[in-house]
Structures are given as structure tokens and as C-alpha cells.
Write a structure and sequence with these properties.
heterodimer, A: 326 residues, 11 helices, B: 136 residues, 2 domains, two-stranded antiparallel ribbon, 3% strand
């Protein structure tokens, strides 16, 4: 008594049954959030979700599914060279899929479309740009005051070092002093007669930027500046030949209603799917490194990873219309 | 045996092309932009979702029946898959009140802002007077 299928296949099907529940919970949550949020972002210029990228990825996955079927057919016909060839092609297509996915994620990161980073109203957008600009100014202060390390402005590090410097600890004494002291030092250096010409130019550019920031921040704080005006101001600053390049970390202001919810859902769904793709690729590698040793003992294995891969394809078939089209 | 093999080979490529056509169809529907149109009393996003998701279901069935060989499996497939399908559908049905019936009041800063942005005069463009609606 028992099912007329190998144990491993039964196990794979049971696993896929749990996977169906896993993904239907996420997709269900997404549908509820999407339907319950009037004004959900759908404009491709705002969300940077491109239908062509999703469509291409759908095609890539469907093609790889087709190749897996052909590989299994090769295994069953004991044509192992054919099986290897198609498994290899499937693996390459999985790489292509992840490549396109990486390109899309890169777009999200460069536009700062990340959960918790997105301003949802003009006010929040202006606040965010001022925070980013403050980091730029601070990191510029530290970079100019530091002679020994190469002047590299990393805004992420700034906060840490500034905070640490406030603590009176033996260890922190060697870390950068508070920004205000550094600023005064730079001021003194600018006024000193023995400063070289190029250095003076750098310092002057820095102080011009700082003045501009203080002015904008004041206007932002008493709410006398609008979103469009702030964007124009920032664009003008970016074009400035002296300090425009340092403003790269300051993003273009684009408030997105429900943007954070959207980004969370997007990264959760596509992230878990990408994780499944990576696991599938590992399983393909395991069979591919067998090389010429591939024999009929691997029939069940190839069939099971095939089932898994079709499931990954299946999930994407639903994610594509849900995320990219609707 | 070999005849059967070649037969299924042809079938797989047919399924593959059917899947490709379905994908192209759903992209086409995105370009037509059904949001503005209405059909059979359905309109906007509902119509678009219905069309696109039924295409997705068709594709999913193609993959499951042919690529995952469910067509050629024994009766065990029903025993194994029906509980999951029922539970997955039950989950969705249990959530319909949340999706379909808005029995709660929407009170979020985003909704306030959206309303004010819609009321703002078109020539103002960026809806600046809605800024004050934001609740910190």
C-alpha cells in the first residue's frame, strides 16, 4: 500500500503544497493592501517599475521551464548529453533572470525607493532633502578637515563619527571631533594668509554650499518654500561647477502616496521569489557538477528540481500581472 | 515508445508558444490601458485585474498540467493538492470583507492628502496647499 511515486517526489509535492500557502498569504496581503489604499502608486515614472523588464523576465522563466522539461525528457531517454545541455541552459537563464532583477533593484536603490525612505507628502519630501543635504555638508566638512586619509565623502559614516565624538571616552578622542569645531578650523584656515590658492578655492566652495544650505534649511523650517521651488533650487545647486558634484546623494524630491507600503510589498514579494530562484540555481549546480557521471540514478532528482523550478515559474506568472500591470 | 516521445516533444513546444502568446497578451492589455475603458459593467482597475489575472490562471494551468505532468499522474494528485487549493482559496475568501467591503473608516494622512491634492486647482499643479494636511 502506498502511492505509486518515488518518496522524493511525494516529498517535493508536499513541499510545494506548503509553498503554495506561503506565497498565497503574501499575495493575499498584497491584494488587501492594494485594494484598501486609494491612490496606490502605479505611474511607471514614479515607481520605476517597467513592464518590459517584467515581461522579459516572464519570458526568460517560461523558456527555462521549457528547457527543464526537455532536460527531463533527455534523462528519461538516457540521452544524458542532451539533459546536461538543457540543464546548463536553464542555469544560464536563471542567471539572466537575476541579472534583470538586479538591474531593477539598482533602479529602486538609486531613486531611493526603499521601505521607510519615501516621503509621502511635500512637507516630508522637503524635510528629507534637508536631512540629506546636511549629511553632504557635514561629510564635506570632515573630508576637508582631514588631510591624511584621501578626501572621500561617505555620508553614512558621518552620523556615527559625530555621535561617537560627543561621548567622552579614551578611544573616541582620536575619532573626528564634532563638526562645528572642524568648521571653525576651516574658517580660520580660509582667512589665514599662508593657505595655498587651490585649497582656498575648495574652502570657498564649501562655505558657499554651507551658506546655501543654511538659507534653504531656514526656509524649509518656517515652511516658506514649496516642493517645486525646492526642486528648482536643488537643480540649480547641482549645476554649480564648484560644489555641484557633492550633491549627488541628495535625491530629486518626489513624494509618493503609499510609497513605503508599496516598496515593502514589492521587495518582500520579489525578494522571496528571487531567493527561490537562487535556491533553484544551487540545485542545478549540484547536478551540473556531476558532468559526465550523470546517469539514470539522477532521474528522480532532475524530475524533482524540475517540479520546483516550474513552481518558481508559476509564482512569477502571478507576480508579473499583480506587480507590473495592475 | 519513441513515437510517444516525439509526440510529447511537439506538445511541449506548443505549450511554450501558448505561454509566450499569453505573456504578450497581458503586456498588450497593459498598453491598451483598460483603466479608462469599461466592459460588461466592469471598469477600470477591476476589469484590468480580471482580464490579466485570468490570463495568469490560464498560464498557471498550462504549466501545472503539462510541464509538471499533472495530466499524466495518478489519482494521488487530487488527494495531495486539493487540501492546499481549498485552504489557499479559503484564505482569499476570508479576506474578501477587507478587500470588497470597506466597513472601516479610512483615516490615514495619505487619504487626507490625496483628497486635498485632487481638490487643488489644476494650474497650481503640485498641490502645495495640501501640505498642511500632513499629520506628524
Amino acid at each position: 500500500m502506498g502511492l505509486p511515486i518515488p518518496h522524493s517526489k511525494l516529498g517535493m509535492w508536499l513541499f510545494l503544497a506548503t509553498e503554495i500557502m506561503f506565497f498565497s498569504a503574501f499575495i493575499g496581503a498584497y491584494i488587501v493592501l492594494r485594494a484598501g489604499s486609494p491612490g496606490w502608486p502605479t505611474d511607471a515614472n514614479i515607481t520605476h517599475i517597467h513592464v518590459w523588464a517584467g515581461g522579459l523576465n516572464t519570458f526568460v522563466l517560461i523558456l527555462s521551464s521549457f528547457f527543464v522539461v526537455l532536460a527531463l525528457e533527455g534523462m528519461k531517454a538516457e540521452n544524458f548529453a542532451k539533459a546536461r545541455r538543457y540543464l546548463c541552459l536553464t542555469f544560464l537563464l536563471a542567471c539572466v533572470f537575476l541579472g534583470i532583477k538586479t538591474y531593477e533593484y539598482y533602479g529602486k536603490f538609486s531613486h531611493d525607493i526603499l521601505p521607510g525612505h519615501i516621503p509621502e507628502t511635500p512637507r516630508m519630501a522637503i524635510d528629507k532633502s534637508m536631512r540629506e543635504m546636511k549629511q553632504v555638508v557635514d561629510s564635506r566638512t570632515i573630508a576637508l578637515a582631514n588631510f591624511k586619509p584621501p578626501a572621500k565623502s561617505e555620508p553614512a559614516k558621518t552620523e556615527e563619527s559625530v555621535e561617537l565624538a560627543g561621548v567622552t571616552d579614551e578611544k573616541t578622542k582620536e575619532i573626528t571631533p564634532p563638526v562645528e569645531i572642524l568648521r571653525q578650523k576651516l574658517q580660520a584656515e580660509l582667512e589665514a594668509p599662508d593657505t595655498s590658492e587651490s585649497r582656498k578655492k575648495e574652502l570657498a566652495a564649501y562655505f558657499a554650499l554651507e551658506t546655501k544650505f543654511i538659507d534653504l534649511n531656514k526656509r524649509a523650517l518656517n515652511e516658506s518654500i514649496t516642493l517645486t521651488e525646492m526642486n528648482q533650487e536643488l537643480d540649480a545647486l547641482r549645476k554649480n561647477p564648484d560644489y555641484g558634484v557633492f550633491l549627488a546623494p541628495v535625491h530629486h524630491l518626489q513624494p509618493i502616496i503609499y510609497g513605503n507600503l508599496f516598496a515593502s510589498v514589492y521587495f518582500l514579494l520579489t525578494g522571496f521569489h528571487a531567493l527561490h530562484v537562487v535556491i533553484g540555481m544551487i540545485m542545478f549546480v549540484i547536478v551540473l557538477i556531476q558532468g559526465k557521471r550523470l546517469c539514470e540514478k539522477w532521474n528522480d532528482y532532475v524530475e524533482n528540481i524540475g517540479l520546483y523550478w516550474h513552481f518558481v515559474d508559476l509564482v512569477w506568472i502571478f507576480l508579473f500581472p499583480l506587480i507590473y500591470i495592475i | 515508445m519513441s513515437e510517444q516521445q516525439s509526440h510529447s516533444y511537439v506538445k511541449y513546444s506548443t505549450i511554450f508558444f501558448a505561454l509566450c502568446i499569453c505573456t504578450v497578451l497581458s503586456i498588450l492589455f497593459d498598453f491598451i490601458d483598460l483603466r479608462e475603458k469599461s466592459l460588461l459593467g466592469l471598469k477600470g482597475v477591476v476589469l484590468l485585474s480580471l482580464v490579466v489575472l485570468s490570463i495568469a490562471c490560464a498560464k498557471a494551468l498550462f504549466v501545472m498540467i503539462y510541464f509538471m505532468h499533472l495530466k499524466f499522474e495518478g489519482r494521488w494528485k487530487y488527494v495531495l493538492l486539493s487540501p492546499t487549493i481549498i485552504l489557499a482559496m479559503g484564505l482569499t475568501i476570508a479576506m474578501t470583507p477587507d478587500i470588497g467591503i470597506h466597513y472601516y473608516v479610512d483615516e490615514s494622512p495619505q487619504v487626507d492628502y490625496l483628497k486635498q491634492a485632487q481638490q487643488a486647482t489644476p494650474e497650481n499643479g503640485s498641490a502645495n496647499n495640501a501640505e498642511k494636511s500632513h499629520v506628524e
